[in-house]
Inverse folding.
């Protein structure tokens, strides 16, 4: 992981010099650094990278660009991991609204965010809300991928084990 961080930092330095810090390539690297830091458990560093990427994407591409939305979704995952459930929900909702406008309700990015909301609600014990999100994800995954795809089957498993145990 230390080598990956060094490579990202090196790439970012070169990209900033070549294109400027608000172009897509450096912002993608900043977002990827956020992912790396989150995976390493460096939550403060991850949040700083996500916020930097988000600010840059919003300035360069606007609030509804898919790169902006991907970073918003990543920030929601970070908040959830930190136990900041209200922030996670608001962030996921923002990403979901944007994805629905950009891609529609059955796109895989939209469905991933719907699933993220389901997980968030389940973790909070809001089982009715979780089930509604999981069922929406299931319906979309069946249409997008088919009934035998791993995304579809994973959602079925979640519904059967965490939402409807014993059914």
């Amino acid at each position: 992981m230390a080598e990956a961080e060094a490579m990202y930092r090196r790439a970012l330095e070169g990209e900033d010099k070549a294109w400027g810090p608000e172009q897509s390539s450096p912002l993608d690297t900043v977002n990827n650094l956020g992912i790396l830091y989150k995976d390493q458990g460096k939550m403060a560093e991850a949040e700083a990278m996500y916020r930097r990427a988000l600010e840059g994407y919003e300035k360069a591409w606007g609030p509804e660009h898919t790169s902006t939305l991907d970073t918003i979704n990543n920030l929601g995952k970070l908040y959830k991991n930190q136990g900041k459930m209200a922030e996670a929900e608001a962030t996921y909702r923002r990403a979901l609204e944007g994805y629905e406008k950009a891609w529609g309700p059955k796109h895989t990015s939209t469905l991933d965010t719907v699933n993220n909301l389901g997980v968030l609600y389940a973790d909070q014990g809001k089982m009715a809300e979780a089930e509604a999100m999981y069922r929406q994800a299931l319906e979309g995954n069946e249409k997008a991928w088919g009934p035998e795809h791993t995304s579809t089957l994973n959602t079925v498993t979640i519904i059967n084990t965490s939402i409807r145990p014993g059914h």
The mean pLDDT is 87. Residues 25 and 94 are 24 Å apart (CA to CA). The two ends are 42 Å apart (CA to CA). The chain has two domains: 1-62, 85-166.
